[in-house]
């Protein structure tokens, strides 16, 4: 019985130590606003068949963060869906890997007030790095917080460009 207790404690310590060290491998990725946004775009991007680092994806977000796509429903009414990071992975993760997906930031507008940081990040989406033309463009409205140690993504609310909703010139590359 004593040996079993020692083995159990050893296993718990090993898993606790691995889990405690895990964030250290990602610290540089959330050190600056630029590195955080580059990581956000990079972690969902990859060729078809290329797995994504969903642990890194989850590491970017605050505990109660939301990802909120807006879209037209079947009746043509504009609506939204509010997802947790886990819900986003469940909804889109398989599709990203099966189809290939690269989201590239092409322009950025940043507004700050104290701890409140709002980024309008214009993006283009491709299925492969080899693609010449994007299959989609849009704007991510990203709210972030810097707690003095790292950046946290609080929310991403986005809309795709369409004929009736083109990206305004002020949010395109200058």
Describe this structure in words.
This protein is of the alpha+beta class. It has one domain (29-171): Nuclear Transport Factor 2, Chain: A (Roll). The chain is 30% helix and 34% strand. The chain is built from four helices and six strands; from the N terminus they run H-H-H-E-E-H-E-E-E-E. It has a six-stranded mixed β-sheet with strand order 2-1-6-5-4-3. A hairpin with a 2-residue loop joins strand 3 (102-113) and strand 4 (116-126). It is globular, with a radius of gyration of 19 Å.
Number of domains: 1
User: According to CATH, what is the topology?
Assistant: Nuclear Transport Factor 2, Chain: A
- Share of helical residues: 25-40%
Largest sheet: 6 strands, mixed
Secondary structure tally, helices: 4
Mean pLDDT across all residues, rounded?
90
Output the helix-strand order: HHHEEHEEEE
Global morphology: globular
Kindly estimate the percentage of residues that lie in beta strands according to DSSP.
25-35%
Number of strands: 6
Major beta sheet, strand line-up: 2-1-6-5-4-3
How far apart are the termini? Answer: 70 Å
| Unreliable sequence segments | 7-21
